[in-house]
Write a structure and sequence with these properties.
449 residues, alpha+beta, Nuclear Transport Factor 2, Chain: A, Glucose Permease (Domain IIA), ten-stranded antiparallel sheet, five-stranded antiparallel sheet, 10 helices, 20 strands, globular, zinc, transmembrane helix, peptidoglycan binding, Murein DD-endopeptidase MepM/ murein hydrolase activator NlpD
Length: 449
Amino acid sequence: MQPISVYRQERLEQRRPPRKQLAAAASTFVAVVLLLLLLPGEQAEAKRTAIPLPLDITPAEVDRFSPAAEEVIAPVNHWQETKVRSGESLSIIFQRHGLSAADVHELLTGTELTRPLTRLRPGQELAFHIEHGKLLGLKVKKSEMTTLLYERAPDGFQVSELNREPEIRTRVTSATISSSLYKAAEDADMPERLIMELANIFGGVMDFVYDVRAGDHFIVLYEELYLDGERYKAGKILAAEYVNRGRSYQAYRYTNTLGKTGYYALNGESMQKAFLRAPLEFSRISSQFNPNRLHPVFKTVRPHRGIDYAAPRGTPVYAAGDGRIIEAGYTRANGNYVVIQHGSQYITKYLHLDRKAVRKGERVDQRQIIGWVGSTGYATGPHLHYEFLLNGVHRNPRTILDKLPKAKKITATEMSQYRKAVHGMHLQLSTYAVQAGYRSPSNASVDAG
């Protein structure tokens, strides 16, 4: 009888398969696994066919639908931006960017437009395009709207302007005057340039030195220019209304068939009159026309054949109308003075100027600067003495203008076109006036003139 251990060993030997069979089975298993890994499954096949190609695709277009085509390649920015530092010249800026004096000379001699390159300002923005140490381009920012581009060409540098187009929005603002037009407009967040333009528009129908009263109000419709979503600056006034002591004056910007742009009342009458109501702006009147006034220096009764406008020294003085300078000089009594001939009937005089800006014989346009307020001659302080003569006779400048011929109007043939052009602006002013409480709905179409 065999021992038990030997018996168990024999039984195990009988159950174990031959080694050749094991090797064959292992080989078969490996082959099956590899086959399963190489063949796509249903899910992989679904992914492969999830995005069908267009039916009319050409072989040349197949690459557009490959995964690599979906990658976005960022553009390469070759421009190096910088700002001009205080005291820097073009040579120093070039040196700071690894360029030599020879590069500066090549640029300045390779273009005709050299002025912007030699008159750089601290803080001004520049940009360089340099490759392998060679200057290929230079940008010089002139303003928020304009940049000069210097690009290398075979025969030097070509210059072109890059102009940005701002977004234009319209805005309506208004204010009631308590002390002065300037203060009210400033409180209404109107830029100073627009305040001056507002006075210019109504300067033919109102004397903003003398006529303004507390309780007057104005409405202004104007453009605002935006860059990159931020307000850049104010544009032009499109329409405006000024109510002085209950009387409404309205003005609308319009370009006529001849291409001339101006401001007109709703009835088509031009706001630009032959003479300004006042030859300077935003001052106070110190002495009215008075043939029997007491002279402030000599304390005697002497005729005062004009109006004195007290103003700070250096305030610009404007020509009241188009004309020719017939006198421009100095006398002990008048100080520095200017006399303008307007046509054959009218003469205006401007005395006690600090300085003159014109010479005898020159032609001047209305609102052109002819000098600046001073206190030369017999004057107790800085002011302008202004006189108006009609056919050689002194007339009161404040009343004579109402008796002069009316201003030109829009022609009858163009009136229909004018009314269509300003209708929308008139509606905006009227609607705003009602909303602001300046006007009742029943009186929303006040005609100015």
